[in-house]
Amino acid sequence: MIKLMMFISTILVTALIRQGNIQSQTEVDLDSYQANVWLLSPPCQPYTRQGLQKHSADARAFSFLNILELMPRMSKPPDMLLVENVVGFETSDTHAKMVEVLANSGLVTQEFILSPLQFGVPYSRPRYFCLAKRKPLSFQYQLFNNQLLLSPSPLFGNNEKTVIGENSQSQENWDKLIDSCQPIENFLEFTSSSDQVNTETGPFANAEVSGNDQETSETFVEGDEFDFGAIDQFVVPLSLIERWGSAMDIVYPDSKRCCCFTKSYYRYVKGTGSLLATIQPKNKGKTSSLKEQCLRYFTPREVANLHSFPKDFQFPKHISLRQRYAMLGNSLSVAVVAPLLQYMFAEPS
């Protein structure tokens, strides 16, 4: 799905165009929105490290490529764009096509690879972002035009080329980045000792594990009687710990980093996001018995907190647990996108 969020004066209009329909759009259709700002989040599957990396040859890339083909033919093209995707997009042929089209259309770009970790949030979610402005509009710091930056420095009024990024190979930079983050406990909704989970009597104590993979029982994902306020509902089954414990990423309330949550979190335990140890052992990590650490999943509200969603954000009650995790896994970090938008809309001093 391509999401176009368009600013018209002070009114924010959101148009959701299904991928299957956007390929039939024409330049006249796009002009009809009369939007001067586009926020684009094309499908990321063609560019993920775990995928086939077909780039522009992947059918899921066609919708975005169609937009790029239409832009030069529009009579009212956008004045500003923000494009978001996974790390890896910046080396794709789709990216090369995008940069070519934007440059030929009179737009100047500044590109970033940024993570919430660089904004004090203990959440590892590096993403690629491209900001573009049509001349005579310009960025505050034009020395970064047509460059890819690994630092958010320009967003905070700093024009130095200091690079402290999550992808930096320097252990010193990495340690500095992690130390600057808040602890995970600041983002939890269940924190008191009375909230400790019980792996022996909780509803997942006897959950079955699929014979082919690490998928949990669908009963606990789609059930209509799921109680979002009961912490025991989020206990990791002992059967999963026994089978997949070595593949789990375990974090603690005082940790300052957790892994990226994907749309398959809670359904799978391998590579979908961190698990929280509610009882901290003397020796952290897998040298201590994971069963004794009372592991649980992060709740949807906690994942939303790590995405820096506002406190008053709520899902409609009819949205299932599985759907909540799926939507959060496809979401953006407010802590990262908000400064990017502020920087894009700011005028040179």
TrEMBL record:
Residues 1-15 form the signal peptide. The keyword Transferase applies. Keywords: Methyltransferase, S-adenosyl-L-methionine, Signal, Transferase. PROSITE patterns: SAM_MT_C5. One of its GO terms (biological process) is methylation. It holds the Pfam family DNA_methylase. GO terms for cellular component: nucleus. Belongs to the class I-like SAM-binding methyltransferase superfamily. C5-methyltransferase family. This is tRNA (Cytosine(38)-C(5))-methyltransferase. It comes from Gossypium mustelinum (Cotton).
